[in-house]
Amino acid sequence: MNKGTIAAGHHATAQAAADILGIGGNAYDAAIAAFFASFIAEPCMSSAGGGAFANILTQTGESVLLDFFCQTPLHKRPISEIEFVPMTVNFGETTEVFHIGMGAIATPGMIAGMYYIHERWGSIPMRELVQPALDLARNGVVMNDFQFFDVSVLEPIMTKEEECRKIFYPDGQPLPVGQTLKMPAMADYLEHLVKEGKRAFYEGEFAEKTVAACRERGGFLSLQDFKQYEVIARQPLAIPYRGKTILTNPLPSIGGTLLGLLMRGLDSSFEQQPYQAFSPAHVQNLQALLDDTYRVKRDLDTLAKKWGSTSHFNIVDKWGNAINTTMSNGEGCGFMAPDTNIMLNNMLGEASLLPNGFHTWEEDVRLSSMMSPTLVANAKGECEIAIGTGGGSRIPAAIAQVLHYLIDFDMPITEAVHAARMHQEHNELNLEPALVGKHKDYPDLNVINWKAPAMFFGGVHTIQKQGATYIGAADERREGFAMEL
Asked: Beta 322-328 vs 336-337: how paired, if at all?
């Protein structure tokens, strides 16, 4: 057995986890280091101002799904007082409208979740876990193609206010590939955080500055919103599948439920008629299953087709402890708490989280999500697969397809992660190249044939147990990175 295996959204995120595993830390220590590092390495995907879900399976068989996603504010105020600004983002082949500004911020849960994990399962002092992130924030991380793409397409958000412009658009243009991104104010703030503890975020200057800006500029958050935030520990949704148990995100988040429906459909249809992988019959069966599942009555017909500003990582340590987590800041609201380089989320401006329309949210409730960090346990209760992705409404479909390839076709992990995917929703079928022309056509179906594998279909970073060790595979669609120590 190696010291551990990591599959993450960025090399620097993975390396931070590896540093901690290398000095004897467990998977949960490594996950905290990865979280901190992702704030700098994946700034459009992850933030201390956002939220996440973490799926945990310990070496002793303890299983828990931690919900530290964002919470709606305790109180509303007149919409006429709210800063809630539409921003059109051009993704090349499509455009989407997001809403940002102070009125889009929900109470962040990321820091509370990290401290919960540390208090429950951590073995190394927090000051050591933050060190890789401090080094990244001060010395910088080199911009890659995927991060450059994010910063570029989110220009209206990344240039909204001066503190953010200085980091991402220092000369009026997005920081180019190969240049070094630094966030020194975040380094200073994280040092303060680990010295003072979680209260520094939820009761200290960060909360006070954010609340003052909300009060003056049209947001909802109060100090009470910060002080009352709590992590919720849930029992994962357990789905039997071919002698294994798939553990994923339960209600009120809907992504895991959709994944469960997809896996049950695959189990039934594949058992009745095993297909040759990627044959027309196989492709059409997948297409029909996706279409049926995404038509389930769940208000999905009103969901926006979201690109998905989310990231994911998996870690399994040498003892068999596993954690996989999906995190998001939405697209960010455009506001950074002064002198912290931490951008707050725009979850109240996410159409996909508010199926009944903007400003219809109920006060003081945990927002739902498509995020579905997923673990597969074998008959012994050991972690056999850790898998997840970003990608908005496409998350359950992407995970289901990779699990299908791994379990039903026994594909090697790298092949399964990079195998062609499809997505069908709202009478629109998206196909990666190897599937083009094999689908079933019918009236009103809009078919989009992609010329190459694309980030649209997620970044399904995955770890799989093989013999006595674990192997990782990171999805090239989102420039992920995997390593075995």
From this structure: unpaired
Mean pLDDT for 180-187 is 96
pLDDT digits (tens, 9 = 90+) for 437-460: 999 999 999 999 999 998 889 999
Are both 386 and 330 inside the same structural domain?
Answer: no
Q: Does position 51 have pLDDT exceeding 60, yes or no?
A: yes
Element (H, E) at 463: strand 461-466
265 Cβ contact list (under 8 Å, min separation 6) = 289, 292, 293
pLDDT tens-digit profile of 252-263? 888 999 999 999
Boundaries of domain holding 443: 238-306+373-466
Q: Please check whether residue 485 lies inside any domain of the structure.
A: no
pLDDT at residue 95, rounded to an integer: 65
Q: Are residues 9 and 104 in the same domain?
A: yes
CA distance 420 to 415: 10
pLDDT confidence of residue 356? 83
For 122-132, letters b (16+ CB in 10 Å) and e give: bebebebbbbb
- Check pLDDT > 70 for residue 296: no
Does residue 419 fall inside a structural domain? yes
Q: Is residue 430 part of a domain?
A: yes
Q: How far apart are the C-alpha atoms of 9 and 42, rounded to whole Å?
A: 8
Whether the full predicted model's pTM is greater than 0.70, yes or no, is yes
Q: 5, 72, 210, 310: which one is catalytic?
A: 310
Q: Are residues 47 and 90 in the same domain?
A: yes
Question: Is 310 marked active-site?
Answer: yes
Query: Residue 39: which H helix or E strand, with range?
Result: helix 27-41
Check if the beta carbon of residue 79 is closer than 8 Å to that of residue 367: no
Angstrom distances, CA of residue 325 to CA of 6, 265, 330, 363: 12, 25, 15, 26
* pLDDT one-digit tens code per residue, 376-430: 999 999 999 999 998 888 999 999 999 999 999 999 999 999 999 999 988 999 9
Would you call the peptide bond into 252 cis, given omega within 30 degrees of 0 as the criterion? yes
Task: Return the residue matching tokens 């979201």.
Answer: 306
- pLDDT tens figures, 131-179: 999 999 999 999 999 899 889 988 889 999 999 999 999 999 999 999 9
Using an 8 Å Cβ cutoff, are 333 and 86 in contact?
no
Q: Is residue 361 part of a domain?
A: no
Residues 53 and 326 sit within 8 Å (Cβ to Cβ): yes
* Same structural domain, 41 and 92: yes
Cβ atoms within 10 Å of 65's Cβ, excluding its own: 23
Q: Strand (E) positions, 186-309? A: 232-234, 237-241, 244-248
How many structural domains does the chain have?
A: 2
What is the Cα–Cα distance from 313 to 325, expressed in whole angstroms? Answer: 6
187's tokens: 């380094």
d(CA 382, CA 128): 29
Give the pLDDT confidence of 316-356 residue by residue, as tens digits: 999 999 999 999 999 999 999 999 999 999 999 988 788 78
